[in-house]
Amino acid sequence: MKNNRITQLLNIKYPIIQAPMSWMTDAKLVATVAEAGGLGFLAPHAGQTTNPTSNEDVIERMRDEIRKVKALTDKPFGVPFILSYDFSLIPHMVDLMIAERVPVVLDNGLLDPEIYAKFKQAGIKIICRLPNPNLPDALKAQELGADILVLTGFDEGGTLPMKETGSFSVLAEFAGKVDLPMMLAGGIADRKTVQAAFTLGAEGVWVGTAFIATAECRASEKVKEWMVNSTANDLLLFRTEPYYYRSLPTALAKKCWEMSESGASRADIAKVMNAGTGMRLGMLEGDFEHGYVSVGNGISAIDRVKSVKELVDELMN
Ligand SMILES: Cc1cc2nc3c(=O)[nH]c(=O)nc-3n(C[C@H](O)[C@H](O)[C@H](O)COP(=O)(O)O)c2cc1C
Question: What is the pTM of this model?
Fold first, then answer.
């Protein structure tokens, strides 16, 4: 994989980013991805085993995890500045990122001019991933000074976009209309899907699910084994807040799916899903009764657990 605008902007070897994935990320994973030539992101609950007790606790825990990354690698890494639906945390996160000199931040589509100006002044690179890809917001991100735009197709794991536009189709609306380098997210898990992303106009790939099935990821070994033995056809898709979610068929996911099929409200399904805690139980603790296992359609291409280096080399060479 040759140098391109993304490797140059981020000062990395390969245009691959290990996406933020809540409880699944920690300093070790992020530093290992950095050493393998990509760029890793911490995420809400990075490195934690318990839920935070207060907003101050959220910030302190993230500060600690950022410092752990810096102790493990001198290569760049990233952190999202939106860690929860409690937006009162955002100014504190912005201050934390600037104080800790985090090299790259993620804007999950807030598009706030003041925040962009602060990061730009601090020399921090800004990646914008729109939760619902659309051209007006992409152009706004460009105008505000984002460095990279990530477009997400419906094949992804985690919280899905509102529109069911597949990863194969999502870039077409933006190609030739946005000057920013674009990365594709959703279902990228092997060399062929990376090639497809580049053919479709992406200059980099934003990969979540495939990094869960790596030796260095803190996911339960039970989760990794289940991923290896499953395909996209096994996943349950259900409505929840804000939009859609998919999971391997744990008891909890089956309940959410049945509620979704029988027309329960998104709010009621979200209560049962118990987002933050449900992921910790299912994915960190391997409790398939009370938790869910969020992965994307890319699992069909995952046939064994690899090291991060093996995965990065396979996807990029
Ligand atoms: C278990 C899991 C947790 C995620 N948590 C977050 C998150 O906290 N913040 C975020 O911006 N995206 C989150 N995502 C989405 C990823 O950043 C990324 O967009 C997605 O994983 C890409 O699709 P893929 O899983 O098909 O590779 C999560 C995805 C997964 C699978």
Answer: 0.98
